[in-house]
Design a protein that fits this description.
The structure is a single chain. A nine-stranded mixed β-sheet has the order 3-2-1-4-5-9-8-7-6, with helices on both faces. Helix 2 packs across helix 3, helix 6 runs parallel beside helix 12 (about 335-355) and helix 13 crosses helix 14. The radius of gyration is 23 Å and the shape is elongated. The protein is of the alpha+beta class. It folds into two domains: about 15-90 and about 355-380, no CATH class; about 100-320, Transposase Inhibitor Protein From Tn5, Chain A, domain 1 (Alpha-Beta Complex), CATH 3.90.350. The longest helix has 19 residues, at about 335-355. It has 14 helices and nine strands.
Length: about 375
């Protein structure tokens, strides 16, 4: 057990990791488990992207580390760190991380919508041709309103997302939350698991749902012809600016029709909707329409916020991981190590997101690498 670390700030993340089990063999165990774990977390926040970089970072900061950690045999080698990351179960990280979330970022039920966006991402350079393994896919759960990574699950193929999402849902708290998922997760059993967990869902609907997709699109397009004069529908339009592009998005939401095909097979289904986007970028224009089914009540502004909020997992989480953490360039092939490194990066991004200063996420990570006092502040460690 990680009992050897003692920090004055009992609400820090390190306290929440106190119950994490050491997976290493008891033979020739020179370094304390807590020391290795804390060094890995610190180094990834400060810019390290693999065991070798973590080991080099620790070597160059061992004087400072000795002020905070026990280090009975000095700083560990990158081989020692690599063995730990290859043995530690990713699910153990997530369980302790949930405890940290509860301690430092409790949900404000009066102001937060508590939206959880779930989506998959590929680690493009993690393929292993010798072992005939494709790139690793990670399905992530992202708290939109709190900018926190809630969990992840690794799978070898994108097609396995359908089986990975229910397993991921079992590891996170969905009670009182609205879970949004793209079309890959538009499955009845996934909807049922969310409802059974006392949450709600908003699922993107595409042709993978066959008859349901046709029924929803036909119904909405039919009533759109007379501006929804015959049904109880809500409309909301907003204009978004960013990255040289202007998007005008019109949202329509309405109660699910009583005679909708297979309605009874979707637990909790209450509303359907569509988001129609018209985009302008320079002289180019484009448009698209996305259809949704949900257990959420009628309220088009909230529907719009959930649709827009789901894009946060791509724009906030995945984009930061690719650009700031350069995740797509990581060539670690060993599956457990790659999974744990990916989790550490999501963990680091979540902690960087909690900082209240003028810096961007990329700059916060750089400053953490330059200024050890700033790194200590991110982790809630008293500055000595």
């Amino acid at each position: 057990m990680m009992t050897e670390i003692q920090f004055d700030n009992v609400d820090s993340i390190l306290t929440s990791f106190g119950e994490l089990t050491d997976p290493r063999s008891h033979i020739n165990r020179l370094h304390l488990f807590g020391d290795l774990l804390v060094i890995s977390i610190m180094a990834v926040i400060a810019g390290a992207d693999g065991p070798q970089a973590i080991g080099i970072w620790a070597e160059h900061h061992q004087t400072w580390l000795k002020k905070h950690l026990v280090l009975p045999h000095g700083v560990p080698s990158h081989d020692t760190l690599g063995r730990l990351l290859g043995a530690l179960k990713p699910a153990a990280f997530q369980k302790c991380f949930e405890a940290w979330i509860r301690s430092i970022a409790p949900l404000d039920k009066e102001t937060d919508l508590n939206q959880i966006a779930i989506d998959g991402k590929v680690l493009r350079r993690s393929h292993d041709r010798k072992r005939k393994l494709g790139p690793l896919w990670l399905v992530s759960a992202w708290s939109v309103d709190r900018s926190l990574s809630l969990g992840q699950l690794a799978t070898d193929e994108k097609s396995n997302e359908i089986t990975a999402i229910p397993e991921l849902l079992e590891s996170i708290e969905v009670q009182g939350a609205v879970v949004t998922i793209d079309a890959a997760g538009c499955q009845r059993e996934i909807a049922r698991k969310i409802i059974d967990g006392h949450g709600d869902y908003l699922l993107a609907l595409k042709r993978n749902q066959g008859k349901l997709y046709e029924a929803v699109t036909d119904y909405i397009l039919l009533h759109m012809e007379n501006d929804f004069a015959d049904i109880r529908a809500r409309r909301f339009t907003e204009t978004l600016h960013g990255h040289g592009r202007v998007d005008e998005i019109t949202y329509y939401q309405m109660p699910v029709p009583k005679d909708l095909v297979n309605r009874e097979k979707w637990p909790g289904l209450k509303t359907i909707g569509v988001a129609i986007r018209q985009s302008e970028s320079g002289s180019k224009t484009s448009s698209d329409a996305r259809f949704y089914i949900g257990s959420i009540a009628l309220g088009v502004k909230k529907f719009a916020r959930y649709v827009r909020g789901h894009w946060a997992i791509e724009n906030t989480l995945h984009w930061c991981l690719d650009v700031t953490f350069r995740e797509d360039e990581n060539r670690v092939r060993e599956r457990t190590t790659a999974d744990n490194l990916a989790w550490l990066k999501r963990f680091a991004l979540s902690m960087l997101k909690q900082q209240d200063d003028k810096y961007s996420i990329a700059m916060r990570r750089r400053v953490a690498g330059w200024d050890l006092d700033y790194l200590a502040k991110i982790l809630g460690i008293p500055v000595l």
